[in-house]
Amino acid sequence: MAFLSKGVHSMWRSTKLLQTLLPQVSQSFLCSSSELSSSSNSESESSDSLESASHVIDTERIRNRKLLYPPQHSCDRIQSWVSTLSRLQDDKVGIIDLHPSIFGVHPRLDIIHENIKWQQKYKNIDFSRVRTRAEMPGGGRKPWRQKGTGRARHGSIRSPLWNKGGAAKGPRGPTSNFYMLPFGIRVLGLRTALSCKLAQNDLHIVDSLYIPAEDPEYLRDLVKSRAWGYSLLLVDDNDEVPQRLANALQQIPEYNVMPAYGLNVYSMLKHETVVLTLSAVEKIEERLLYHLHRSGCVQQKFRLPL
Amino acid sequence: MFYSILVGGQLYIMALCIKSALGALRVTSKSALVSTKLPNMHCVSAKLYSNSQNENSHSTSPKGFVTPSPYQPNRKPARYGYRQKLYDGGLLPRLDEEIKTLPKYNPGNAWSEKKALFGQNDYIDILGDGSIQPYENINGPRWLVGFAGNEYERTLRRLKWTGKKLAALHPKLNNDLNKRLRYLYREFNMGRRSHRSRSKKI
């Protein structure tokens, strides 16, 4: 158990080992989940064990999870631990299958780059604008006659050659850098980012966003004890954040929470660790698999409705 | 307390000691100086001057009094009132001046709310129910949201969307945009084959 919990992500690919271990693993989870509710376990008698007693971990849901569009080959199997935020210790409460076409695609860095660049560009509007000679006041009169003065010939004091004249080829008006990356590339970008995060042991799955204390130190200690790094992105299916979590996150700018529909490639790369709830995993898989398997043109060109 | 008095082009430096409050008034040329407002450089020159005068005159004149003589040159501190810009204080650091350096590195807050949540909802058409498109996240003029074009296309679209309002409320801007549109049309199209004169056609 100890070595499994340390290096489980790196060993997911070795399916034979997992298949041999799985029966034992699932049995041990059954035991631990039953012990969670009862206070007889000596190890779990920490300060937060009483508070987490009010939070019930739905182990049935974890165990009975089934994949949509199940993969045909068993070698494609990808699994992940499910832990919980309700306890400071990194106790595993289950193990689930993840869909290989969402969490196990090839790490295409070019696709991630395209997606990041699109996110930075498509919303950008440049408001810089300078006036041309036509838009500046005055300048209609010829400043001096064409011949006989010994001076250079000029026709307007607003010529671009003049000091305080109009600008030639300056920035013009609000400009937009808008473009839409093809739909399929954006779907692939999300899949690639999720896969890379998982392969690098930076993606974790929890049962819910329940935390027993609204003290931000609890969350900091939890992240530190699990070596989740500097920044954290929590993703849930729900729009509403639990009150305690919201109070805690308000004081830590590096830890952020996002609904599943708000997930994007840029945020996944900006935050060191991404934590998905089980319902968020189901929602994300359902949406991405729907777009992978639906009929119709995925690569259709974007047209602005007018 | 010190006072300096300028009389008849000559500077007599009088010292009014604190003791004078008791009634003992002493006038000395030896007790140097100094108006408190002068900078240090002038203090130095005034000191030198008073010392040199002491060597010449004090041997003959009674102590504590200098006779105003017509044969004495009109001696006063050289270049009185002149502020020298160059530093002649020797090999000392310029501690009174602020040293010009690079501005202090002041990085922005990378985890402000705007930056921490940058990019949220950019994939809402994929992960959401499909009723919202990403271009609806854009803040900007409505005629420009979800649109990219060259200046002619932008001006045309702006006038199409907001032309009536501009004509009523901002006639100068409306006039400028129409002028620009005419200019850009000529710029883009007049060199083309269909707009050339018939004699030049190949």
TrEMBL record, chain A:
SUPFAM superfamilies: Ribosomal protein L4
Keywords in alphabetical order: Mitochondrion, Ribonucleoprotein, Ribosomal protein
Keyword Transport: no
A Pfam family per the record: Ribosomal_L4
Gene Ontology cellular component annotations, sorted alphabetically: mitochondrial inner membrane; ribonucleoprotein complex; ribosome
Start and end residues of each stretch annotated as Disordered: 134-171
An annotated Gene Ontology molecular function: structural constituent of ribosome
Protein name: Large ribosomal subunit protein uL4m
Provenance organism: Bugula neritina (Brown bryozoan)
From TrEMBL, chain B:
Name the record gives this protein: Large ribosomal subunit protein mL51
Keyword annotations: Mitochondrion, Ribonucleoprotein, Ribosomal protein, Transit peptide
Predominant localisation class: mitochondrion
Pfam families associated with the record: MRP-L51
Keyword Membrane (UniProt): no
Localization of this protein: Mitochondrion
GO CC terms in record: mitochondrial large ribosomal subunit
Residue span of region Disordered: 52-77
GO molecular function: structural constituent of ribosome
Domain of life according to the entry: Eukaryota
PANTHER family: LARGE RIBOSOMAL SUBUNIT PROTEIN ML51, MITOCHONDRIAL 39S RIBOSOMAL PROTEIN L51
Ranges annotated as biased composition (Polar residues): 52-62
Native source species: Bugula neritina
Family: Belongs to the mitochondrion-specific ribosomal protein mL51 family.
Example GO biological process: translation
